[in-house]
Every structure is written in structure tokens, then in C-alpha cells.
Amino acid sequence: MRKVTLIKEVESRKFPSGGIGRVGLYKCYCGNEFKCLMTAITTGKTKSCGCLHKEGLIKRNTRHGQSRNPVYIAWANMMKRCNNPSCPKYEHYGGRGISVCDRWQTFENFLSDMGESYVSGYTLERIRVNEGYSLGNCIWADFHTQSRNKRTNIMITYNGETKCLKDWSMLLFGSASALGKRIRRGYSIEDAMTKPLINKQIRK
Fold first, then answer.
1. DSSP state of 45
2. Per residue in 180-196, pLDDT tens?
3. 11 shares its domain with 68
4. Which whole-number Å values give the CA distances from 169 to 175, 177, 180, 186, in the listed order?
5. Are residues 60 and 142 in the same domain?
6. How confident is the model at residue 198 (pLDDT cuts 50, 70, 90)?
7. Scanning 4, 75, 184, 201, which has the fewest C-beta atoms within 10 Å of its C-beta?
8. Where are the alpha helices (DSSP H) in the chain?
9. Which of 185, 167, 184 lies closest to 176, judged by CA?
């Protein structure tokens, strides 16, 4: 049986009725730590940090025939990345504070907001990569768009225009790696972007 473990009692909470409740810091079986009234745990009203509720939603939607729906798969993967510490990608999402808005805690709401705009083969993408998942910050994007919205991309502003390093390199030299190689060799940004390539091949 999956259980939560009391780490320590952390505070007392006064109720409007005048009573006092003891609050404990617990470790959930999924790995999350959370605070909860100790009586809620002992009476069985609270059985997890909330992950059991999310698991129940996923199971119910799966039973409703959504398990192969690509929109459902996108929603389920989003929930795992943000809420499940055992997910390989958790450290890049939930682990750094990326969360799912309250409305999208249920698949039906996510489907209502994003289902009609879904394009086959596209994936769920956040417009602002340091903010969470919500209707105002999400689009369906192809791989090209998504790959240019990563936190690891190097952005360069030149002549008032900002592009990622690979896009500048393709625009200037027709090669995705040429500009990066020049910068690694010690070229200044100005020289790396303006000096012409030297063709080392000598045509006979």
C-alpha cells in the first residue's frame, strides 16, 4: 500500500471557529514533499500530495477512449513533466518551477482550449520558455519552431535584428555550423558575421 511519511510537525494553524490544527511536513510516495493538516492524513481524507488525484484523472480519460488521442498524449506528457519527479524530463520542467495552470488540470478543459487548433505531427510548445503551461502561453509547433525556442539556443542581435546562431549561420553562409565554428575559433561577432568564407578547394 502506498503511503505518505511524516517528516516533522512544522506549525499550528488557527481556524475561524477557534480550534487549532497541527500541520506536518510529509513526503509523498511519489517523492514530493508537501504540508498538510495532520488530522487529514490520520483520517484518510488526504492520501497523497495530489498525485493520486492526477493519476485518477489520467485513468478516467484513458477509460474514455482517449489513450491514443494525440491531444490527450500531449496533455498526459505535460502533466508528467511538471508533476512527476520520476519523469526523466522533470528537472527541466517541474523541477525548475514550470507548472500547469489550474484550468488544465483536467483533460476536458485542455481539449476544449487546444483541441481544435491541433495539427497532426505538431507538439505542444510554450511561447515563453520560463513560464508555465496555459492557454495564453502555448501553441502547437512543428519541430523547426520548437528547436529554435530552447533555453540553450544562442541568440545574436546584429544590425537591430535578433536570430538564433543557427539561423544567422544559414542566412549568411548557407551552413548551420559555419558561424559557430568561427566564434569558437575566437572571431569577434562582427568579424564572424562579415568576413567572407575562404574556399579551400582549388578547382582544376
1. S
2. 788 777 777 777 777 77
3. no
4. 6, 7, 8, 16
5. yes
6. low
7. 201
8. 38-42, 51-61, 70-83, 107-114, 143-147, 165-173, 178-184, 189-194
9. 167
